[in-house]
């Protein structure tokens, strides 16, 4: 008997990927708008803001880079900081890579280049360790999120003169809230709920302990690695 979820995934198409990404677009729009406002207020031009969204494509890193540019930080320090903040993508890519083992290197490169926290969460909720993910479906959610992010930051930068304090609108919390929603949805669809809760609690405790001795970014990496370690142990 063919695994039902695997059959469903194989039938997914680019259009269904676009549809599945729609619930996340409101979060992307709000936080992308805020990112555009912040970037412009830190002295970046509209073109520079859009270029960063196009080539860097990382919300948290773009906020950090904008503030560092405002403080006249050196180029190497900005690059190194962005690299450290985005190290978590190595873990996400490693986790999702087996689901694309039948694709070519070029296809896998396009998937990895556009992978974000949110698209990773969507992909994880669609599959389990025995499934493969349809390439067209994955590119549907990836490209939809990517285009929406670039457009949102452009709009934010263009209308930045109308927004004096984006925090009053709660825009700085939009991306976090969106990811929490995706995480809860993923856990609800996971048959091993107790295992998922154990991993989340372990990661949170690791983060709380880590930030007492290291920076927040380092603490996040330690928590992510510890969570992956706990996941591997509980899976065995």
Describe it for me?
By secondary structure, the protein is mainly alpha-helical. It folds into 2 domains: 12-189, no CATH class; 191-236. Helix content is 74%, strand content 0%. It contains 12 helices and no strands. It has helices spanning 4-11, 14-41, 46-55, 59-70, 75-85, 88-96, 105-113, 117-126, 135-158, 174-189, 193-210, 216-235. It is globular. The two termini are 25 Å apart. The relative contact order is 0.16. The model is unreliable at 1-10 (pLDDT under 50).
Task: Give the proportion of residues in helices.
Answer: over 70%
- Please write the string of helix (H) and strand (E) elements: HHHHHHHHHHHH
Described by the principal axes of the CA atoms, the overall outline is: globular
CA-to-CA gap between the ends?
A: 25 Å
Instruction: Please provide the count of β strands.
Output: 0
Rg of Cα set: 19 Å
Structural class by helix and strand composition: mainly alpha
Question: How large is the share of residues in beta strands?
Answer: under 5%
**Sequence stretches where pLDDT stays below 50 over 5 or more residues:** 1-10
Number of helices: 12
Overall pLDDT: 78
């Amino acid at each position: 008997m063919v695994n039902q979820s695997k059959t469903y995934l194989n039938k997914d198409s680019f259009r269904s990927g676009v549809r599945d990404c729609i619930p996340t677009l409101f979060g992307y729009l709000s936080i992308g708008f805020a990112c555009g406002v912040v970037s412009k207020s830190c002295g970046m031009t509209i073109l520079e803001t859009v270029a960063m969204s196009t080539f860097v494509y990382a919300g948290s890193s773009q906020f950090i880079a904008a503030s560092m540019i405002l403080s006249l930080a050196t180029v190497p320090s900005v690059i190194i900081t962005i690299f450290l903040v985005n190290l978590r993508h190595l873990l996400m890519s490693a986790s999702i890579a087996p689901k694309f083992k039948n694709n070519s290197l070029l296809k896998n490169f396009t998937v990895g280049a556009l992978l974000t926290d949110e698209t990773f969460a969507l992909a994880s909720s669609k599959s389990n360790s025995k499934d493969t993910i349809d390439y067209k479906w994955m590119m549907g959610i990836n490209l939809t999120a990517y285009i929406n992010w670039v457009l949102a930051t452009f709009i934010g930068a263009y209308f930045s003169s109308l927004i004096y304090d984006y925090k009053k609108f709660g825009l700085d919390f939009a991306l976090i809230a969106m990811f929490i929603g995706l995480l809860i949805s993923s856990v609800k669809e996971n048959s091993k709920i107790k295992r998922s809760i154990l991993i989340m609690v372990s990661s949170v405790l690791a983060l709380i302990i880590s930030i007492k001795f290291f920076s927040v970014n380092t603490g996040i990496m330690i928590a992510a690695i510890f969570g992956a370690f706990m996941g591997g142990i509980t899976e065995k």
